[in-house]
Design goal:
Radius of gyration: 23 Å
Number of helices: 11
Structural class: alpha/beta
Shape: elongated
Strand order of the largest sheet: 3-4-5-6-9-10-11-12-13
Number of strands: 13
Oligomer: single chain
Length: 385
């Protein structure tokens, strides 16, 4: 019997990437400092509070800028952790002031984030919770991109940080905020990534950091019914439902998730949402599709469907994107639909399309993670023109 001696060397495994403290909750931050030996357990609460304020109130990205943290602790923090922002691949500004960032958080991981001025108290940031989406809603551009993965809490919070950097809104203002509302209405289904979304909301709403009220944070779902109660219990966030149809056959087409959780199940889940009241109404989102769901009969069916639910209805003119077969309802049709809802006592604002010229409007977001980076693609298109 002969033996062969294998002298080949396997490459050493790459060292783990440093943890970005941005995505840790207060409890997670305290434990991380202890585990890394940055400070003893008896001082962890105080040290974590100092670090927390520098990260989330002042927005620093360098441990050396933490002036009330001892130099030796700054060095230890830098050895074990990072505060790095993700790469901004592309920044676009619409004619109406809407801003869109294409953000790369890791190789092959790109997301789009949109700031819309004059929404909510001052301005709203539409954040993504996944790269791509699994739901395949037929009217939504994001739905044409396959799911790449869930975002981490750090990657969700980083979207807020990037926007605040650009808006020059550090330290966190008490009044006169430009970014006053957060809406989880970007890429992905938030309830399929609830752990990271809940941690991000805890971080964003902390009074010693970014300090946005939970009543100014809205999570939009297409209707993952079993996760509605956990969402309300864990986050106390405002609820928005991506509805778009009043009967199961049509909603099965527009929102295929309806085949798993039909309208009867969805409405029961909404009625049981923790904290639902006239002061904390659910928002029903209803995209207006020409000749599909925009008739007076559909408006009256919508009233029957939501009867008794503290709610408002956002009517969303369909925002076109390359390759879609849908068209936006004409303005008179939308106004007629709204009038029927208003007469019945439901606030039904017609959402003004924002950022259409940079594909930043509702339903238009789509990164190029599974293809080529979007900036290079657009440059190639311009060069070819």
């Amino acid at each position: 019997m002969s033996l062969t001696l294998d002298l080949s060397r396997k490459p050493a495994p790459a060292p783990p990437a440093p943890v970005n403290l941005t995505g840790l909750t207060r409890a997670g931050l305290r434990q991380a400092l202890i585990d890394a030996g940055v400070c003893p357990p008896e001082k962890a609460r105080m040290r974590a509070s100092q670090v927390w304020s520098w990260i989330h109130h002042y927005g620093v990205t360098d441990f050396a800028a933490m002036s009330n943290v001892a130099r030796d602790m700054q060095v230890k923090l830098a050895e074990h952790f990072t505060l790095a922002r993700p790469e901004i691949v592309e920044r676009q500004v619409s004619n109406d002031g809407t801003r869109k960032w294409l953000i790369r958080t890791a190789p092959g991981i790109e997301i789009e984030t949109v700031y819309i001025p004059d929404v909510g108290r001052a301005g709203a940031l539409c954040v993504s919770s996944q790269v791509g989406c699994t739901l395949n809603c037929t009217f939504c551009h994001t739905g044409t991109q396959a799911l790449v993965r869930n975002l981490t809490a750090a990657e969700i919070v980083a979207q807020v940080q990037v926007a605040r950097d650009d808006l020059e809104e550090w330290p966190s203002p008490k009044e006169d905020r430009r970014l006053s509302n957060i809406v989880f209405m970007g890429m992905g289904e938030p309830l399929y990534n609830l752990d990271a979304v809940a941690d991000a909301i805890d971080i964003i709403s902390d009074n010693e950091g970014i300090a946005l009220s939970r009543r100014r944070i809205t999570v939009s779902t297409s209707g993952v019914v079993p996760m509605l109660e956990p969402l309300g219990t864990r986050t106390q966030a405002m609820l928005a439902i991506s509805l778009h149809a009043t009967n199961d056959p049509l909603r099965d087409v527009l929102v295929p998730l309806n085949k798993r959780y039909d309208l009867a199940q969805l409405m029961a889940g909404i009625r049981a949402y923790p904290g639902l009241s006239n002061a904390r109404r659910v928002t029903f989102e209803y995209v207006m599709l020409k000749g599909v769901n925009d008739s007076p009969e559909e408006a009256r069916a919508l009233l029957r469907l939501i009867e008794g639910i503290p709610a408002k209805v956002n009517l969303i003119p369909f925002n076109p994107w390359p390759g879609t077969d849908y068209e936006c309802s004409d303005w008179k049709t939308i106004e007629r639909f709204a009038a029927i809802l208003n007469k019945a006592g439901y606030a039904s604002p017609i959402r003004t399309p924002r950022g259409r010229d940079i594909l930043a409007a509702c339903g238009q977001l789509k990164s190029e993670s599974e293809k080529v980076r979007a900036s290079a693609l657009r440059k190639a298109e311009r060069d070819a023109a």
